[in-house]
Design goal:
The structure holds two protein chains of two kinds.
Chain A (H helix, E strand, L loop, with lengths): L9 H19 L3 H27 L3 E3 L4 E3 L1 H19 L2 H6 L5 H19 L3 H19 L6 H32 L4 H8 L5 H17 L8 H8 L2 H26 L8 H20 L4 H21 L3 H26 L2 E2 L2 E2 L9 H4 L1 H14 L6 H15 L3 H26 L13 H15 L1 H15 L9
Antiparallel strand pairs in A: 1-2, 3-4
Helix pairs in contact in A: 1-2, 1-5, 2-3, 2-5, 3-5, 3-11, 3-14, 5-6, 5-11, 6-7, 6-11, 7-9, 7-10, 10-11, 10-13, 11-13, 11-14, 12-13, 12-18, 13-14, 13-17, 13-18, 14-16, 14-17, 14-19, 14-20, 16-18, 16-19, 17-18
Chain B lengths: L6 H18 L4 H29 L8 E9 L4 E7 L3 H18 L8 H20 L3 H10 L1 H11 L4 H30 L4 H6 L4 H18 L8 H8 L2 H26 L1 H27 L4 H22 L2 H32 L10 H4 L1 H15 L5 H16 L1 H26 L6 H4 L6 H19 L2 H27 L1
Antiparallel strand pairs in B: 1-2
Amino acid sequence: MDALNLTPAIAEIFLAGAATLLVLLAAFVEPEVQASRLMRKISIGALVVTGALTVSYGSVPGMAFGNLFMSSPFTVYMKLLVLAGASVVLLISRPHLKADNINKPEFALLILFSVLGMMVMISANDLMVLYMGLELQSLPLYVIAAMQRDSLRSSEAGLKYFLLGALSSGLLLYGLSLVYGFTGGTNYADIAGSLSGGASPGAVIGIVFMIAGIAFKISAAPFHMWTPDVYEGSPTIVTAFFAIAPKIAAMTLFLRMTYGMLGPVPESWQQVTIMLAVLSMVIGALGAIMQTELKRLMAYSSIAHMGYVLVGISSAIPSGISAVMVYLAIYVVSAIGVFGVILSLSREGVPVHRIADLKGFSRSHPMHAACMMIFMFSMAGIPPLGGFFGKWFAFLAAVEAGLVVLAVIGVLASVMGAFYYLRIVKMMYIDELENPLDVPSDSVNNLVIGISALIVALFIFLLGPLRDSIAATMPYIVFVLG
Amino acid sequence: METTWPILTILTFLPMIGVVFLLLIRGDDDVVIRNSRNVALWVSGFTFVMSLFVLFNFDPAVAGYQFEDRGIWLALDGIGYHMGVDGISMPFVVLTTLLTPLAILASWKSVTLRVREYMIAFMLLETLMIGTFCALDMVLFYLFFEAVLIPMFLIIGIWGGMRRVYASFKFFLYTLAGSVLMLVAMLYMATTAQTTDIPLLQEFAFSPAAQTWLFLAFFASFAVKVPMWPVHTWLPDAHVEAPTAGSMILAGILLKMGGYGFLRFSLPMFPEASVYFAPMIFSLSVVAVIYTSLVALAQTDMKKMIAYSSVAHMGFVTIGIFTMTEQGIAGAMFQMISHGLVSAALFFAVGVVYDRLHTREIDAYGGVADSMPRYAAFFMLMMLASVGLPGTSGFVGEFLVLVGAWQSSTLLAFLTATGLILGATYMLWLYRRVVFGRAEKEEVIAMTPLEGREMLIFAPLTVLVLWYGIFPGGLLDTMQPAIATILGHVADAADAMGTQ
C-alpha cells in the first residue's frame, strides 16, 4: 500500500490551497466591493479547475492517505454535480449579493470551503474523514445563512441552522462512536468486514443514530423541521445554494455509507430509509399545499424530492444507485432553474417571493413563465420532462427490490405534490395580472434559466448518454476498496 | 406494406413543426393572431392528408403491426423506441388528425385571447394523441398518454369558462391519480418481463396472481380516462368549462384512449384477469349507462347533458370490450369511432349557439330552427346518430355491442338496451326544447344562420356519420384481424385456465 499516493485527492488539495490563498488575497484588496467581485470571479475559475482536476485525476479508482480517501468514477460524477451547482450559484449571484447586502468577499470563499467539505464527504472512506468533511461543509453554511447581518430573519435562520445542525452532528458523532466501539474500526472496509457476520444490537443503534444525523443534513422527514425556516430566512441566493450542493453531498455520503460500509447488513438500515422515504414524500407533499411563500414551498418540495431519492436508496440493489444518480442530476438542473426564476422576481427593485406575486406572470414575462412551467411540470413528474425519469428509475428500483407498496405510496404522494406545482402554473397562466413585476435584466440569470429549462424539456434525448455514463461508473460502485 | 422511411414518426411529430412556426411568428397582435390560426390549420390539415396517405397504404388484411419503426433509446434498460399501427389504432390516428383541424376551425372566432399559445397547445396535443395511438413501447406509450395532461390542463385552465380552475385541477389530478397506479404496474411488468415492448409483452404470460393486480392498476388509469362510473365526475366539469374545441377533442379523442388502452393492454396482456373481472366491468358499465342517462335527463346545461351522455355511451364501449366476443369488441371499436365523430359534432353544435347567445342553458333557447334551419338539420342528424338511429354510425356500434352482450348474458343485454331508450329520451327532449317550438325570445330570433366555416366543420362529420352508418363494412374489415388477435390471446388464456 503506497500510503503517500495523493493522486486521487489532487482536486481537493488544489481547492484547499486555492481557498486558503484567496482568503489571504481578499484581505489585501480594497475596497470590499472590489474584493467581492474579484473573489467571485476567481472562485468560479477555481471551481472549474477543480472540476477539470477531478475528472482527470479522480476517474482512476484509487485510495489516498492510506485508505482514508477514495476516488472513483462514481465520486467524480457526484462531485461534478456539486461543483456545477456551486459554480452556477456563484455565477448568478452578482446582482443579488448587492441587493441582499451581502456583497462581501467571504461569500464566495465560504462557498469554496463548503464545497471542499462536500468533496471530502463524498470521497471519505473512514469515519473520521467523514466527520471532518461534514463539519467543513456545515460551518461555512451556518455563516452564509446569517450573512445578512442587519436582517433579523437571516440571523434567525443562521442560528436555527447552526443549533439544529450541531444537534445533528452530535447525533451522528454518537452513532459513529457506537459503530466504532462495536465493530472496532473506523475505516469503511474494516467496518464492512466486521459487520459481514451480522450487526450486533449496539452497532445497529449506532447505525440508526448515524442515519438520523445524515437525515438532518438531507432534510428528510421527520428531521426536516429546520428546512422551511432556514430556506425562508436566508438570502435567496444562499437558499439556492442550500437547496442544491449540500443535498447532493449528503445524499452521496448516505449512499456510500449504506451501500458500502453497511452493505453487508442492509436489514439494519433498509427499514429506516423506507420510513424516511415515506415520511419525506408525504410530508413534503402535504406541507407544501398551504404555503404562501415560494421559498418555503421549495423547501417542502426539496423534502419530497429527497424522499424520492431515498426510495431509490431503500431498494438496496445496484439499480437503486443509478436511479439516485439520475434523480440527483435532474434535481440539480431543475433546482437551479427554479431558483433562477425566483431570484429574478422583484417589484420596483425589491425582491419578492410570495406565490401570489406570480399572478399573471405569463403576461408580463412569457419566457420566464414558460420555463417555470416546464420546471413545475417536471417536478410534478409529468412525462416527458426530466423529473419523470428520476421518479421512473427510483420506483423501478423499488419495484425490482420487491418494495411495491413503497412505490405505490410514492406515486400517490407525487399526485398530492402535483397539486401545488399546478397551483404555481395556475397563478402564472390562469390568474389575471394585477401588479406587474420588474423586467429581469440580468442576462446571465436569464441564460441559466433558459438552459436549465431546455435540459429539463429535452431530457429525453440526454437520458441515453447519461445512463451510459452512469453505467460506466457501475463497476466502481464497490465502495470498499483495499 | 413496409415503407423504408419512418412515416409514423413523421406523422406524429409533424405538428411539432407547427409549434416551431408558431413560435417564430413576429409582428403586431393582429398579424400574430391571424398567422397563428393559419399556421395551425395548415399544419393540422397537412397532418390529416399525411394520415390519409398512411391509411391508404395500410393493408387491412394483415393481422400484425404495420409501418413499424424502431429506434434505440435506452438500450440498457430494455426500453426502445417502437412505433406501429394495427387495425385498432389506425382508425384512432385518422380520427385524431381529422378532429384536430376541425377543432382549430371551431375556435377560429371564439378564441381571441392568447391565440398563439392556444394553437401551440393544440399542436402539442395532436402530437401527443397520435403518439399515444402509435406507440408500441409501454414507456413511450406512457410518455404520450400522460403528457396529454399538460396541454389539456392549459386549454381548460386558460381558455375555459367561469369555474375553469376547479375543472382543470380536477381533470388533471383525477387522471394523474389513475395513471400513476398504472405506472407502478408498468414498472412491475418491466421488471418481470425484462422488456417494455408491447408486442413482446402481449406474448408474455404473467402469472394469474400478478395479472389480477396489474389489471386493477391499468383499470384505475383507463377507467378514469374512459370515464367509467363512479370515477366519471371530472368529465362533466371539464366539458362544461372547456372551450368548444377542447370539448371536441376531449370527447372525441381523449376518452377513447381509455378504451384503446383496454384493447391494447388489459385484454391481450391480462386475459385471465380480464375474464375474472368482466362481471365487475359489466356492473359498473350498466350503472353508467342507466344512471348517467338519468342524470343527463335532469341537466339544464346543454354541455353537461352531452357530457353525461358521453359517459353513458362509453359505458357501451366498456361492455362491448369485455364481452370478449368478436361482435362486442368490433361494436365497441365502432362505437368509439362513431362517438368520436358524433360527440365532437354535438359539442360543436352547443358551441355554435353558445357563440351567439353566450349561454348553455336549455331554457334560454327554443325555436332555434326558425332562425337557423340548417343548423337544426345538422343538429338533428347528430342527435339521431347519438341515439343510434339505423342508417347512422351510432346504430352499428350499439347494435353490435348488444349482440355481443346478448352472448354473455340476457340480463346484461336487457339492461344495456334500457340505456338506449333513456338515451333517446334525453336527446330527443333536448332537441325539442332547443330547436323546436316557436322562437319567442328576441335573442333567439336574432340568431344568425350558420356561416360557411361552421358548415365546413359539420359537413365532414355528417358525411362520415352517414357513410359509416350505411357502409360499416370497410371500417369493420380494417379492425377484424386485430380483434381476432386479441381474442386469440383471450382464448389461449381460457384454455390455460381450463387445463389447470
